[in-house]
Amino acid sequence: MEGRPEVIVDVVFEDGFFFLAVANIGDRPALDVKTTFNRKLVGLGGTRDVAALPLFRNIPFLAPGKEIRTLLDSAPAWFARARSHTITARVAYSDPEKRPYKGAMTHDLEIYRELAYPRGA
Is the distance from CB of 91 to CB of 33 less than 8 angstroms? Predict the structure, then answer.
């Protein structure tokens, strides 16, 4: 078989909202995808630890090209709370032949602070 799964955790910024996306950008399925973060990600207006969602504990099957995303917070709410704006996500998963893979992505949400977006958010 050619290729491999390649799972990433990305921060998507749209219309003043931050989303966390788990995506398989590879060309093979990823199995048993687990994501851990370097800290709690208190979002949704300060009401929930988004990093604790079942989405990040285990995705049994993530097809090639598939993305699953969840709302993290609005930009105004995120930046209003004093904390580090750096997020590190670590992913672990395997391919159908049970070969293990790992990866880590670091995102700095501070880069989005000065971007213009519609204020309906």
Answer: yes
Between CA 77 and CA 92 the distance in angstroms is: 30
Q: Which residues pair with 97 in a beta bridge?
A: none
Give this prediction's pTM: 0.91
> What are 64-93's pLDDT values in tens digits?
999 999 999 999 999 998 678 999 999 999
Backbone angles phi, psi at 80, to 5 degrees: -70, -25
Give me the number of domains the chain comprises.
Answer: 1
CB 61 within 8 A of CB 28: no
Three-state secondary-structure class, residue 20: strand
The domain of 90 spans 7-112
